[in-house]
Design goal:
heterodimer; A: mainly beta; four-stranded antiparallel beta sheet; B: globular
């Protein structure tokens, strides 16, 4: 059974960099049938797609975040990472990592989510 | 970007009622439409992919359909455990986009 687990600081100061890691177990992050990505949800609001990392190493980002975001994979650790620079209060959200399955390209496995608050 | 307009924003229904939620895409997305259910404090759960394919383990009272650029999620007989917020997502092209969500409450 595939499992995803996010980890990282719960509090980040404005203008600093938000860094999260998603540990994947029960399957390989190098699978050719999967994309891996990040989605966030501000408190009480809807879902926002941040970006995807494909099995070929390509990355796709939200146009509103592309200048500040980097998604990468550490194949040796089976981990996905997210870096978001120059954070502001509006970046406060629950951050989820998720797998997108080639079958319908839907997010079929999700981490439990981690709340990141941007505040001084 | 493809905009997904979801309606209604909330619905209150009784156990046994039929509930329908709609998403309209601003461009052609073929059948590249996904539905999720989210309960408070939890990650979203995949219900339907490719507009009408039921994810394994999801009760058959959930179904998806499409008509042109309109996509519908139907709960044929609402159950107490179906409360939560439902989101659609287009996966036709980047950037991926979600609908605004529909909160389903049990009367």
């Amino acid at each position: 059974q595939l499992q995803l687990q996010e980890s990282g600081p719960g509090l980040v100061k404005p203008s600093e960099t938000l860094s999260l890691t998603c540990s994947v177990s029960g399957g390989s992050i190098t699978s050719s049938s999967s994309y891996w990505g990040w989605i966030r949800q501000p408190p009480g609001k809807g879902l926002e797609w941040i970006g995807d990392f494909t099995h070929t190493g390509d990355t796709y980002y939200s146009p509103s975040l592309t200048s500040r975001v980097t998604i990468s994979v550490d194949r040796t650790k089976n981990e996905l990472s997210l870096k978001l620079t120059s954070v502001i209060a509006a970046d406060t959200a629950v951050y989820y990592c998720a797998r997108r399955n080639r079958n319908g390209w839907s997010n079929d496995y999700w981490g439990q989510g981690t709340l990141v608050t941007v505040s001084s | 970007d493809i905009q997904m307009t979801q309606s209604p924003s909330s619905v209150s229904a009784s156990v046994g009622d039929r509930v329908t939620i709609t998403c309209r895409a601003s461009q052609d997305i073929s059948s590249w439409l996904v539905w999720y259910q989210q309960k408070p404090g939890k990650a979203p759960k995949l219900l339907i992919y490719a507009a009408s394919s039921l994810q394994s383990g999801v009760p058959s009272r959930f179904s998806g359909s499409e008509s042109g650029s309109d996509f519908t999620l139907t709960i044929s007989s609402l159950q107490p455990e179906d409360f939560g917020t439902y989101f659609c997502q287009q996966v036709k092209s980047f950037p991926l986009t979600f609908g605004g969500g529909t909160k389903v409450e049990i009367k």
